[in-house]
Amino acid sequence: MARKANPFPGGLIVLAPNGELIEAPQFFLDVLQVKLEERVSIYELFDDRRVPFLSFERILRRGNGIFEFYISVVDNSDIPRGFRYWSVSPNQANRRNAPITLYIVDESSLLQVQEWRLRRLRRDMLNHTRVSVTQFVRNRLTSIQALTELLRDNPQIAQETSTRLLENLSSLISSLDDIVDANVVYDGLDAPRIKLTEAAEIMCTWGNKKQSVYAMLHDKKSSKGLIPSEYLERILMPLVQNALEASMHDEDIVVDIWEMDNGFCRVDVLDDGDGMNEFTLQRAEDPFFTTKPGHLGLGLPQAYEALMSVGGQWRLESAPSQGTKVTLLLPIEDPDDLKWLTEQFRQEDDLH
């Protein structure tokens, strides 16, 4: 098969069954500093021992049911580069030994514009914070200086003045500590949270023309837990996508959700697909292992890594011709705790 590259900011990547690059756009080859003649495997390009290398970022589901994968380029520069791709290989079992075809788009220009805007926003925020903190500290130090001069000129009031001086110093130190703590907590509070009922409703939209996803929260009346919205994209979407594609005869997918009493929710993702044998089940969490045409084997390993990073767990159960069941334990948050934290910081702001 002829090896060729095209010069446009989007095009086909064709891979041999072993991952070797057969065809790729020129921008992809240039950024990763490879040539088709070198017979490089796509899996080698994810090896962090070489620079530049690719890093998996996220999965996004489009309105037409297509799942897009976003990958970034890691190198020694500060210039953001990245791509998004989706499979254009037919989802047929008899194509497992056929070439893998992906359509890839260069997202580098968009990423660079976003990075420039974020840097400008960060610069403005830091400047505003610098001015606010400087004014606050200056006012406190002015009070301390006035008390010190009063103590110097009137030694007879040393006991009363020294007490006020120590109170001002203690207040200043406490306020500076609060600034540090507030930055840490607000980072977590800024992430959007959604109810488990909302998560179920969103997952119900992940089906396609031939398959539906039935997601249901059990015991809705007693449920009040929240989860970060990123759980849907980073953890649950890859699992549902895997279940949809495993169902070769267009079976529907069922997602059951229960809120537990120990700070977790349980999520079961079930499909009636072909299932996995013992060998495939053991390797399901391994990067680059896949039995599906048009895929690189990144979805489940990245979902597993994201789940472990938030303190969750999962269990995979499957057998040939009997479908697959994935049981997850996901940490949830109490809205009363988040409300209390927010109110504490509002009170601190009012005091200052």
Question: Could you describe the 3D structure shown?
Answer:
It is a single chain. This protein is α+β, with helices and mostly antiparallel strands and 352 residues long. It has 3 domains: 4-106, Beta-Lactamase (2-Layer Sandwich); 119-190; 193-336, Heat Shock Protein 90 (2-Layer Sandwich). It is built from 8 helices and 14 strands. The chain has helices spanning 26-32, 108-153, 158-189, 196-203, 230-246, 278-283, 299-309, 335-351; strands at residues 4-6, 10-15, 21-25, 53-61, 67-74, 82-87, 100-106, 193-195, 213-217, 226-228, 253-259, 264-271, 313-318, 324-331. The strands form 3 sheets. It has a 7-stranded mixed sheet, with helices on both faces. The N and C termini lie far apart (71 Å). Mean pLDDT is 79; it is low at 182-189.
What topology emerges from the helices and strands here?
Layout: E1 4-6, E2 10-15, E3 21-25, H1 26-32, E4 53-61, E5 67-74, E6 82-87, E7 100-106, H2 108-153, H3 158-189, E8 193-195, H4 196-203, E9 213-217, E10 226-228, H5 230-246, E11 253-259, E12 264-271, H6 278-283, H7 299-309, E13 313-318, E14 324-331, H8 335-351
